[in-house]
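Example record for the data management plan.
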Amino acid sequence: MIQEQENVLSSVKNAIKIMRSFKMDEPQKGVRELAAELGLGKSSVQRILATLASEGLVKKNAETHKYELGLSVVELSSIVLGNIDLHTEALPILTNLANKCGETSHLAILEENHIVYLCKVECKNSYKLQTHLGLQNYTHCTSSGKLLLAHSGSYIVDLVTRNGLDSLTPHTITDPDVFRQELEMIRNQGYSVSVEEYNLGVTSVSAPVRDHTGKVIAAINLVGPSPRFSKQRINHFANELIRSGELISERLGYWKG
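Corresponding structural encoding:
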């Protein structure tokens, strides 16, 4: 009985080691790679991966035949979001932003080559969107995604462009060179705009949130019907977002100086 319990505990520990081995710069790994890295047998790694996959904690990429973390990890992470400083500090500022501007606001982070929404605030007359806590979304055609890519490492940008910039609408940027120019412009102007690049009739504007070191760790946005997002209002929203992003960043310990 004791030996059986030890074997179970060992399998659990190995499963945790496998899940923790996935990194932002190494989002996918094969069975042999994991076995060599962790000093485990290939058959053991394969069994553990199969179990994790059955629960949605990992999934096998159809093109590379390697494994990557699954959506269940995001679902589990949403349980502890209330205790994360970023979510806690951002919520009252996002609520004020949404009410002041009359549009839906989100807080999003970059996870591998997608964005994940950590917070959503709607006001009375805001546009109702099919978004929710923990939802994954595109990076290349959303204002939050483009903002985060503009401040991320070249590896992530290369991954996104290499996988192809899917055309969601006639306005989606699909040329890699044009897309990189867009990211450079976003870095220079300090905010991002997506005019019907993801959904026809919908426009969004995003600005950065920084941690205590000054690194961009999240994006906040305002999103709504395109007719309500004139050029003048986009500029106004951008200013409001930048200021709100600075307020959240200050709460996280960043001082612009």
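Summary line stored alongside the record: The beta strands are 58-60, 67-69, 104-111, 114-121, 136-137, 192-195, 202-210, 216-225.
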